[in-house]
Amino acid sequence: MRALACSLVLAGALPVHASGGAVPQTVAAALAEKQALASTRLRIWGFEVYDARLWARPGFDLPDFETLPFALELAYLRNFKGADIARRSIDEMRQAGPLDEADAARWLEAMTALFPDVRRGDRITGVHLPGSGARFYLNDRLLGEVAEDRFSRRFFGIWLSERTSQPRMREALLAQLR
Fold this sequence. Notes:
Elements: H1 2-7, E1 14-15, H2 25-30, E2 36-44, E3 47-56, E4 70-76, H3 82-96, H4 101-114, E5 123-129, E6 133-138, E7 141-146, H5 149-160, H6 167-175
Antiparallel strand pairs: 1-2, 2-3, 3-4, 4-5, 5-6, 6-7
């Protein structure tokens, strides 16, 4: 059962709801302009995995998502090991398109070092910094940064790219921003 749950971290699912919420200070500081909020829940085979919330500037344009600042928060509804989250993230990046093995190894090492084990209720927030990389927070506490723009584009593409394994989740997140 634990292996199944770990494989569900970013695996296929249907979004089931949207909800609002206050913008965390870490997100507000990264996105100086007013933010729009979109939210959805990842549920797989009846297991609730996480609630995803996307903050972006008004007029967020999906074709240009890689060039715009935004934040994505995953509020976990189950316990997961940080190393499993990192591995699954690389698997999802590979599914979206060819991934250079040197990049994959470097990014896996960086994410494994950054992502802690999470418990139900923990929130990991990633902030896309165009041209710079990605900054990550656990419950509004800075975890660190991967200072590589290509990493940031591929990582957030897990949810926002047309090649995502979660097209329904992507649509739910983006439909609310239009």
